[in-house]
Each structure stands twice: as C-alpha cells, then as structure tokens.
Design brief:
mainly alpha, 3 helices, 73% helix
C-alpha cells in the first residue's frame, strides 16, 4: 500500500551522500506539492493557502540544498 502512495524513483547519478539526500528531499517536495494541489483542486484548501504551503516547502528545499552544498 505504501509503495503506491510513496513511490520512489531510481537514482541514476554518481553516488554522493549529499546528492542522495537532496534527491530524497526533492522527491518529498514533489509529492507534497502534488497533495497540496489535489487538496486545492478538491476545494479543501484555498488557492492562497495552497500557495503559502508550497512556498514554505520551496524555502525548506532551498535551505536544504544550501546546507548540503556547503559541506
């Protein structure tokens, strides 16, 4: 059941721990945006709230990338 909800794409790049972590964060971001968009489409969230939540997720993803690139 969880593999259907939380599918994971294969990683094809050269293995580096920070790249793998960022890839996982990017997949999580993508999945959360999909859910938020679904909630907004289903009238469970306003457009403004959906935008706000996606904006927060984007800031978090950017911060993660910045932290990983400094190591």
């Amino acid at each position: 059941m969880y593999s259907f909800l939380y599918h994971c794409r294969l990683y094809y790049r050269q293995f580096k721990p920070e790249s793998l972590v960022f890839n996982a964060q990017l997949q999580d971001f993508s999945q959360r945006v999909d859910y938020i968009c679904g909630l907004q489409t289903g009238s469970k969230l306003s457009s403004k709230e959906a935008y706000h939540q996606i904006h927060i997720l984007w800031k978090h993803l950017k911060m993660t990338r910045k932290q990983l690139s400094t190591h």
